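Folds abound. Consider this:
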Amino acid sequence: MKNLPLHLWDIPTDATTTLINVSENETYLVEGGEFKAVLRVHRQGYNTQRAIECELEWSAALPLNTPTAIAGVDGKAVQNYHDHFMVLFNHINGKHPDQSEDLTASFTELGRIAAQTHSHSQGWTRPENFERLTWGLDEVFGENAKWGDWRDAPNVTNDIRRILERVERVVQHRLNAFGQTPENCGLIHADMRLANILVHNNETRLIDFDDCGFGWFLYDFAAAISFMEDDPQVPVLRKAWVKGYRTVRTLSDAEVFEIDSFIMLRRMALLAWIGSHMEATEPQALAPDFARVTAELGTAYLAKM
C-alpha cells in the first residue's frame, strides 16, 4: 500500500517503513529513533472490524508474551483508512526458527504453548458480540470455502484431482466421526507456523493471530508444519509437539493418531490458498510442486487409513 497513514498514530514524524511481508495482509516495520513497531494492513474483505477487535481482545488476554496493539490518536486499536483496516503492534524481539535447524526443542515448547492457548480458550469469558473465523470441514471443502476450491489451484491435474478427492472423502468421514466437543474444539491460533514464531533468549513467542478462530485444537499442529509437511523431521516434531502439549492438557492416543487427518485438512486448505492468492510472491513460489506433493502426502495418508 502506498502512502501509509502513519499520522493516525502518535509516532515520530520521521519514522520510516519497510515492507516485511505480503501474504494474507501486508506487514511493515515502522522505525523512528528508538521507536519500533509493526504495521499490519489487512486484506480487504477478509475480516470485519469487529472480528479484528476480537482477535486483539483474545491475544491480549492470553498468558503469553504476544504483540500488543498500539492505539491510534483517536484511542482505537483498529484504524480504518480508505476502507483498509490497520493495526499497529509493538515490536517484540526474536528470530524465526529455521527449517534447516533441529526444531525439536521449539516444537516441544510450541506444543506447550498450544495447550496453554486451548486451556485458556475453554475458561475465558468472551466479550459480547464475539466474532471470529471458523476452521472446519465446510470452510475448507464447502461450496463457500474460505480460500476457495483446491481444484482451482495451479497444476491440479486429473490424476492429482482423483487422489485428492479420495483424500477429501476420507478426511470428512474421519473428522465427522471424531466429532466436535468442548474438549477438542475451541479458539485456536490456526497459523502457528515457523513464520509466526519468534525465539528470544530461549523463550518462544507467538505472533500474528489474524487467522485465529474456532476449530479443532489439533488443527494447530497441522498449521505448525504448514508448507513443510513432507519434511523428513516432521514425525520427530510431531512427537515433540505432543510431548509438550501433554505437559498442560490431556491428549489421548486416538487423538494423536487422528493428527494425520488434520494435516491433510490443512494441506488441502493451503492448496486452495495458493490458488486464490496467486498475486502474492509466496504462493507463486510454492505453486509449481505444491499440488504434486499434496497428492503424494495424500497417497501415503490413504494407505495408512
About this structure: The mean pLDDT is 95.
